[in-house]
Amino acid sequence: MTSFDQRKHERFNVESKIEYFLNHTDEVSFEGDIVNITENGLCFQTTKELREGQKIIVKNILPNNCQTATVVWIEKTDGNYYMVGLQCK
Question: Which single residue of 4, 11, 26, 82 could bond 36 by disulfide (Cβ 3.0 to 4.6 Å)?
């Protein structure tokens, strides 16, 4: 059986909020809903349009110890929502 799934780490479904900043000096935070989490990343839904390669600062203390992350993909979904994939540093 051949798998087309390129994922290196197992994903775990999570129902939790994420709070993040666009840079270290920002006082304005944004929120989203975490969909799943891995050893070195996560996927979440948000209303803030981000861009691939953008760095963000994660405020939450997550099980995978993600504090700074890079947007590796983003996809617009229904309405004004975006699904975002992060790789944690």
Answer: 11
